[in-house]
Amino acid sequence: MSQKRTYAALAALAVAAGSLAGAGVANAEQRTGGGHGAQRPAAFERTATYPVFQNRPAGEDAAAATVAEISAVSEDGRTLVHTDAAARRIGFLDIGDPGRPRGLGTLSLARLGDAEDEPTSVSVVGQYVLVVVNTSASHADPSGRLDVISLRDRRRVASFDLGGQPDSIVVSKDKRYAAIAIENERDEEATPPGGEEGDLPQAPAGFVQIVDLKSISSPTGWRTRAVPLTQPDGTALPVLAAAGIAEPTDPEPEYVSVNGRDQLAVTLQENNGVVLVDLPTGRITKAFSAGTASVSGIDTVEDGRIDLTGSITDVPREPDALGWIDDRYLATANEGDWRGGTRGWSVFDSRTGKVVWDAGNSFERIAVRHGLHNEDRAEKKGTEPEGVVIAEYRGVRYAFVGSERSNFVAVYDISNPTRPVFRQVLPATNGPEGLLPIPSRGLLAVSSEEDDAETGVRATVSLFRLGKGTPEFPGVVSAEDSTGAPIGWGALGALSAVPGKPHQLYTVTDAVYSPTRILTVDTARQPTTVTRALTVKDAAGKPVGYDAEGIHARPQGGYWLAVEGKTGTGNQLVRLDRDGVTRQVVPLPADVAAGLGGQGFEGVTATTDRHGREIVWATLQREVATDPAGVVRLGRYDVEADTWSWFGYRLGSTATPGDWIGLSEITVVGDRLAVIERDKLNGPAARVKRIYTVELPKSASAPGSLPVLAKKLAHDVLPDLRATNGWTQEKLEGLAVAGDGEVYAVTDNDGLDNATGETVFLNLGSGKKVFGRRG
Q1: Does the structure show a pLDDT above 50 at 454?
Q2: Could you count the other beta carbons within 10 Å of the beta carbon of residue 189?
Q3: Are 10 and 35 in contact, with CB atoms under 8 Å apart?
Q4: Where is the region Disordered (predicted)?
């Protein structure tokens, strides 16, 4: 039974980043709602995560790249269609049951044109799928087409030459028009005269295509109309030049959205601008620059530290996606491209072109608070908010903003367009690209474009449903530090009870971050909350970075850390005092260290008898080379005698190529030792995520011996992980029995390195339930 969290309390962590008159900027998170007795707002709960490789054609290698980028849905909301540029096809899913999406096969674009044709976007009108296809031979020779596919039999019923390389497509609410951004994107390796590599301008210029859908029952009668964004001779349109567009002779339109008055909004991402077009006439009615922003309180240095003291100054927003909030206000996701990106999103008044609200640092801080900060992107564009869509559910208008690099979608109530209120975070798999509201069914679909079978990162379509239940995510958030910034956290690979504090746990960051920090976690808060961070120091009192894989809080004060080395000799037990200062380092015996590769210590625990004699127990993850195959060592370290003895634990086996089974945690439970045994598989391939117990030896083993302890299954955690309806996490690594007797487990999110970044924090129930009466 995975732990549920009261959503009213999550609302207490909400960001109500308000606006100032004119061009409002929210540089700090503000709280709204929450508290005991507060009415629980509606929330989106994940119902399923579908790996799109499972929908591949018969006979295709399961490891072949197949992605889900942009999605659309049939008018009855039951058939989802997505682009798959990697495999040059579109995919179809039956989402009639949101809890059990079912693959309906794919349509290869090679059947419709050439094997190298690439779908870039998709929409649905009536019984037809509108697929825009990039057929370009090169950046200098762009081309594309619009294919109209019957949803019933997947036959192409019409095709239109678009005259350039298309990016996105949108259909107007009245179904009279479709509009397509013809980007004719720049070559990042080309150097224009007088410029630098990748600079603008690079001919030919992009434009907009309007498709008149005179009759949605007869696509053969549709007609296209081009809306040029430059003069016939290639010079700049006065309206774009006057707006301060960066390079108006090369507009490069990126994304399109239509309001209820058939006004088209188009982003010019590389040019940091927005253009408005009247669809009935094809006339440009306005153009404006997205402007610049200065943002403070963010992480701008890739150094292994989540340090929210950095800033950026006068950076172009360079919006990617945009969406009409109503017929006046526009929202933009300010991903950035080559010169910009402001790590948030903005609301513009389309009448004036002015910013009326800006997320400032709050979007990045949402990522930090939820353990989704991607340190590898700190020096670049941070969270990279790429997508934004607007939809109304049950009379409430929401904005959904997707973070490409931190793998989440933030949900905002935008009932007041100039004062968005943050409501919740939805976890996604890697690279959420397509955000698809399906309000008629209370659903949201999120399609992800990252796919790498070798690292276990697979593209998916995730479904969320609006309800009044309690979301599984987040399991952990962080409180604010003394400066008002959220405490940075991630890679929670170890747990320990806090002596004397029945509702608190300790965890510790591993090598993903430096210096090492011990985090205090309060399970009485909802969600469970990181409330304090203690920096670990070396013997000289200087901050130090350990690859800490295990932690034990000593009743007599201080901590033991199990530190994993890159080589066998780097593995050590480290004793810290109350202030986190290193007071003792215990190396592995030389003969054991010599038999280890890169996988050593993974967990640590200890017992102290009534006479104060302390015995430390530590587990290795994998076998020592000289030991019997399948037997891993549990180490017993007698602190007073400064001696090691060893016991064996027999691992399960796996038949999956490239997989292995190992241990990742150890803790004392009454008269037994509990360990986590797991495989290295994730997603639908995951098989072994279990807690076993062995008898706690009463004395040391004989020198040179390795007696194997009999193990007993206490709890299979795999069903708990799968019950989240997300991507089943690989690294189940933390286990502890808190002072209140509850058993907790946590997954290590690897700091988003080849991982979704989602942390699953589980309350498995009472120790008596999990381990039996002796627990």
Answers
A1: yes
A2: 8
A3: no
A4: 183-202
pLDDT digit string (tens) for 23-78?
A: 344 433 433 333 334 466 789 999 999 999 999 999 999 999 999 999 999 999 99
Looking at the DSSP bridge assignments, the partners of residue 560 are: 552, 575
The tokens describing 523, both together, are: 């399970």
Report which residue type is found at 490.
Answer: G
Query: Following CA atoms 547, 553, 558, 559 in sequence, which dihedral angle do they give, to the nearest 10 degrees?
Result: -20
Residue 552: phi and psi, rounded to 5, are -135, 125
Residue 762 to residues 209, 225, 505, 610, 755: CA-CA distances in angstroms? 51, 56, 13, 32, 19
Average pLDDT, the chain: 93
In the 8-state DSSP scheme, what is residue 362? Answer: H
Helix or strand run (H / E) with residue 397? strand 396-403
Sign of the torsion formed by the C-alpha atoms of 430, 435, 440 and 442: positive
Kindly report which listed range (16-20, 121-125, 568-572, 687-691) carries the lowest average pLDDT score. 16-20
Q: How large is the greatest C-alpha to C-alpha distance in the chain, in angstroms?
A: 92
The phi, psi pair for 308, rounded to 5°, reads -95, 50
Assigned token pair, 619:
């587990």
Structure tokens at 118: 């690439």
Which residue reads 């579908």 in tokens? 50
For 270, the 3-state DSSP assignment is: helix
Domains of the chain and any CATH numbers: 7-476 (2.130.10.10), 489-771 (2.115.10)
Beta bridge partners of 226: 209
Give the pTM.
0.94
Separation between Cα atoms, residue 388 and residue 395, nearest integer Å: 19
Helix then strand then coil, in percent of the chain rounded to 5, is 10, 45, 50
Tokens (6 digits) for 7: 């959503």
If DSSP codes are grouped into helix, strand and coil, which group holds residue 366? helix
Backbone CA torsion sign across 163, 169, 175, 177: negative
